[in-house]
Amino acid sequence: MAQKPGAKRLLIKPAKATSAGVFLALVLAALMLLGCGGGSSDSSSSGSTAADAAGGSGDPGSTTGTGGASSDANGTTSGANGAEKAAGSGRLSGGGSSANGDQPSAGSKHGPRIAQPKGEPEPGITPQQRQEATVASMALESPSSQASSAGPQALPATYTCDGKGTSPALRWQGVPQGTAELVIFTMNVQPVEEKLFFDWAVAGLSPDLTEVEVGKLPRGAIVGRNSFGKAGYEICPPSGAETYVFTVFALPRKLSPSQGFDPSALRKEVLDSSGNVGLLALSYARG
Amino acid sequence: MRPNAIRVALGAMLAAIMLTAAFASTASAAPAWKFEGKALEGTETILGGAEKSGLSMWGMTTTCDNFLYEVDISNSAGTGKGNVTSLPLFNCYTNSTCTVEAIEAETFPWPAELKTVSTSNYLVIKNVNVWVLYGGWFCPLWGVWAHVTGTAGGLIDNATETATFNPSSFKATGTKLEALGESVEWNGKFPTEAFEWHRNQALSVS
């Protein structure tokens, strides 16, 4: 910013100049501007580097570089050339080693501002965790959901207690070979009374199945008792917004629970045996 | 034409060419890393550190009491570049029943660059790659890997020497993080400073 007036002065000078010498000076000044990038972002930098390089390691030079460029074209010519050379040779290999000691005194106003972390960094992932963790390798989507401006897709009211309360359509792909059974769980992301809240739990689904339709389940489906105490699907938040996690697990062996099973108990078995899952988050805001 | 006149004419032409080039360069000036107002030459390492920075996804937020990133920076052709070389996270937890069993940033370096949008400068970090393993019996994501990937843009404030990542900065830079098929919101204000050659010097971007 400081060099702008100087640049203006350079623009004015040629109109008055009549000698080749003045024009030569102007050209060299222009060359210097070009070498500095010409912009407010870069010119001061190269100029100052020039000053550093030309003036020695002890010369902070920011003012000299930029001021010289604007006020005295001839005077800054050598500095500019020196800057280019210095830039070309690389600062760290030469002046870099002394850069720390050459800091302008104004720089010492800065002190450490980053809060010192307490304790140790979080532990990295262990090989055992890598092996045992479930990978969300299956793609799960709901044709019933609606786009949302932020966060998860929206679950329309018809799939809640504010509407018909039917279960939404779900569609998935990526069921691995050798899957014996599919299990669906729907849970609140946020706990209710500090416990995981199940809205829907369905087992006994064929591994060949790739979707469930709205409000329907295929023959052979086994429905668990949800946290409302009902063997079926229900989403009914007390108020405000809630996010629900829909999951489809692929099980390598059949678990075959009985109708009205406890979803919490089945989930433990599922997590112990399944390494593949599809996840989908849907949100619903009750007015 | 007299020799003097020719010299004057040639000089004027050259000057015009140079000035045009210089001002064209001004118009397309890209943001560069600066210390004490001078553009960085060579390389430097900066550290950004936020207190209580959080990743929000799936209706829950994973917060780390200290969230740091280390970036090797340089200017290339007048534009600030960088490589994120580490991202240590301290004391992470969620606002749900989920615990953070493990969290780790991987596959460094992540390339970064400075970008100007309108009149504001941003630090854009690409190839973000963070794995989170949640735990807790009452956690709906228990035992499932959440893999946070994508690009993150943070607003740089020269006055406070901070980079702020939030939905506004992501929107301005057209960047996005995702995990488990959902978008991830990253919120955090990172005071940033050098800790090699330019330690204790004022860091700015312009």
Written description of the protein model:
The complex is a heterodimer of chains A (287) and B (206). Chain A has 287 residues and is of the alpha+beta class. Helices cover 31% and strands 20% of the residues of chain A. Chain A is built from eight helices and nine strands. In chain A, strands 1, 2, 3, 4, 5, 6, 7, 8 and 9 form a nine-stranded mixed beta sheet that branches. By secondary structure, chain B is α+β, with helices and mostly antiparallel strands. Chain B has helices at 3-27, 167-173, and strands at residues 33-35, 38-39, 43-57, 60-76, 79-86, 89-94, 99-105, 110-117, 120-135, 145-157, 162-165, 176-179, 182-194, 203-205. In chain B, the strands form two sheets. In chain B, strands 3, 4, 5, 6, 7, 8, 9, 10, 11, 12 and 13 form an eleven-stranded antiparallel beta sheet that branches. In chain B, strands 2-1-14 form a three-stranded antiparallel beta sheet, with no helix packed on it. Residues 19-28 of chain B have low confidence and may be disordered. At the A-B interface, helix 1, helix 2, helix 3, strand 1 and strand 8 of A face helix 1, strand 2, strand 3, strand 4 and strand 6 of B.
